[in-house]
Amino acid sequence: MPGSDYIAHVDVNSFYASAERAFNPSLEGVPVVVLSNNDGCVVTRTAEAKALGISMGEPWFKLAPRAKAWGLVALSSNYELYGDISARVMELLGRYSAWVEVYSIDEAFLGVNGTPERMRQLGRTIKDAVRRHVGVPVCVGIARTKGLVKLANKLAKHNPDFAGVCHWESIPEDARDGLMSRLSVVELWGVATRLTNRLNAMGIRTILDLKNANPVMIRDRFSVVLMRTVMEVQGTPCIPMEEERVGRDQLIFSRSFSTPVTTAAAMGQVMSVYAQQPSARLAKHGLQAKVLTAFAGTSHYNQDNISYPSVCVPLPMPTADPVLLHKAANSLCERIYEGVKYVRAGIMVTDLRPTGNQSPLELFENPHEERGIGTLLESVSKKYGRGSIGLGSAGVRGGPDWSMKRDMLSPRYTTHWDELLLVKAS
DNA sequence: TCGGACTAG
DNA sequence: AGTTCTAGTCCGA
After folding, report:
1. What CATH number has the domain spanning A250-384?
2. A6-168 and A173-234 have identical folds
3. Less Cβ around it within 10 Å: N or C end of chain A?
4. Which CATH architecture has domain A6-168?
5. pLDDT, tens digit, for every residue of A288-347?
6. What pLDDT is recorded for position A377?
7. Distance measured from the CA of protein residue A26 to the C1' of nucleotide B1, in angstroms
8. What is the distance, to the nearest Å, from the Cα of residue A385 to the centroid of all Cα atoms in its chain?
């Protein structure tokens, strides 16, 4: 990160809910939650929803009876909208630093420098620009290490004194220690419940306790990952800024069902629909897979008839071909017990490599790809909608009854002409 | 090299 | 009745 001694971390507040609010002002000031796939559990809460005591991961069916009394609005995940809003935020951030690492759908690290005053001003500029041009609220943390910058962002979010921008070194040193002595180690990046329990057992409870721990002892008793965390809160950078990752090591498509699947025949239907997703995603990234793993599972909450069948199939050649993937995934059916209630299934492709440099022999052995079936499937479903065409039993009419539930879906405001927001002037 | 443990978002 | 999904790193077998 040449020329940048500092890192700014920009993070959208309650991202999914804020993206919804950008197009639906009636959600402003109201408690809003966004639900996971299948409307299963809460994945995003606004400050108002948090204030009601709603926790992350809380199942919607437990919340639903109280929603009306609370004035709580629940929405299904609208990933198409969030993806587009995310792209707009990231594009905008690119104007403020030559070094942007997009870390997740709603977060980025930016290489920055300057005097404390100038960096605080830059933070405010970014915050205002994202709000004004994209319509979502962000907070900004600025420090020398990724560990501290994530902490600074958290302070900016929860402490109104910072007004959304926290430059760590602008805080006097004794006040920084005071803040760290009041925060549990769970608040740190990379520390969750398991590590917190183990650290607490050793008497390390606060971030300040951990900062004062010996990194070598931490490495020996825990791992190099936690040692790096300790050094980062001490102010020594250990986690470098990353280049954009070009390829993936693996690609997973997995979903829970709205209704359990109980027969091998139905699972075959699931596999034929599911296989088309990794196929399309591989093609999109110009990748081919050598190995496919198909899996299914019963509910974690149902203790009888537990079953987690899986098959790992070496593919005859590196491929993204839906026909070959479907055929491989279908072998999962042999592991399905009739009558057992499977609630989820998925397909994982691994050993990925870029398309091309195939030997002529492989091309000869791979007739489907040559005929462009994947591309054909994709263009037809693009034109006539998902489910309009499919391979094998995915092509059956009537529609499967196990597909995903999304009862509270908002429009795809920014990516589909027919779902554009209508504004009336009077 | 593989699978399990743990984590993030 | 019902409790997400994707992807990474590290570590021990």
Report:
1. 3.30.1490.100
2. no
3. C
4. 2-Layer Sandwich (3.30)
5. 999 999 999 998 888 788 889 999 999 988 999 999 999 999 999 999 999 999 999 999
6. 54
7. 54
8. 25
